[in-house]
Amino acid sequence: EAAASLDIPPVIPIVYADVADLARLVPGDAPHQGLVAEVDPLEDMWLGDLLQQGEGDQRPLLVLDQVTDPHNVGAIMRSAAAFDALGIVTPDRHAPPESGTIARAASGALEIVPWVRVVNLARALEEIAEAGFWRVGLTGEATQTLTQAM
Known about the structure:
By secondary structure, this protein is mostly helical. It is built from 7 helices and 3 strands; from the N terminus they run αααβαβαβαα. It has helices spanning 2-5, 19-25, 47-53, 70-82, 100-106, 121-130, 146-149, and strands at residues 61-63, 87-91, 115-118. It starts with a helix and ends with a helix.
């Protein structure tokens, strides 16, 4: 019934299956709600490419360090999409991989906001500065507001 209400192009094959069969097709943390689509993984984005896209752009670029909870990363991505951020940069290590949990928490932002993974965050911050971005560090324990610090 639900498939009839979706505008699925005829070139995409549809295979009907039981709920149990669908559950076997996806990781345990991926909600399927009765529908599973097989898609290509998101393309990797390189920092240099993102910085080149943002040349002369005034949009913020978020850099996350040691944000390991996929729910938090997803929520940050959702906020980044709402504020039209250029992208998000995280270290390869100490950041969760793309997953159903992040996708669910991001509410679609995972497909909209470019996510760059870097090996060395310190080097990435230098590259970001060389591209003309200001670097502003924020912490939950700060005694000043952003306006006061600027």
